[in-house]
Amino acid sequence: MKLKDQLGRPLNLESVPKRIISLVPSQTELLYDLGLESSIVGITKFCVHPKHLLKTKTIVGGTKQINLEKIKALQPDIILCNKEENTKDIVDACNDICVVHVSEIETISHCIEMMQQYGEIFNRKEEAFEISEKIQNNLKDFQNYIQEKPTLKVAYFIWKNPFMVAGKDTFINYLLQLNKLENVYEDLGRYPEIEMQQNKEVEVVFLSSEPYPFKEKHIEGLGAYYTNAKIQLVDGEMFSWYGSRLIKSFSYFKKLHVSL
Questions:
Q1: What is the model's pTM?
Q2: What is the pLDDT of residue 1?
Q3: Residue 61 carries which DSSP code?
Q4: Which domains does the chain have, with CATH numbers?
């Protein structure tokens, strides 16, 4: 098969891969929803959907650190990576083992493209099309819903000690824009570390459930800096997971706007 990944790298596959390792949680969930559970042989410790995979598949590490010996022992036909979630060193090391597909996701169009590539690679074109159609239909419905909503200024926190937020050129920022939420830290870089100081222009502060697990106890402390803002916990998976999880995201966003 003459195929390329989302970085334009050629994938030299002689047949449909039968043994898959996924180093990206959202892509692991997509594989499952494409009906490829039996072909998955290795995942990361962060591949929590569906949960039973953590018990039935070999854990080969995380997204930033992997056990190469475990990966080699699994004799994979293909390893699935992502440009942001996995390091270049990981991709290079995996390239020495087998074919590696690297995704690059900044928009829903990129998500659809990735699904189409998986449909080709794993002979799941029909399943990939069905998932893509659901996402695109839900997106159109949400765009109609959001049309009359006011634009709000937001900050989206992903980490504590040091405090870090989502910035420009990220999938999170893209989804904030779809929600008519203006990211006040958009000009500082992709995931900037910020110094906490009073910021009265922010109307909504989101504390994400991942990668840092923000809880209710963190809300009060941030109130001193964002005196005019509503501070709210949000499901980080809905804002940062690409793949079949997006089917659920837009109904979640509707409920979120009701609470704002």
A1: 0.95
A2: 64
A3: B
A4: 2-138 (3.40.50.1980), 149-259 (3.40.50.1980)
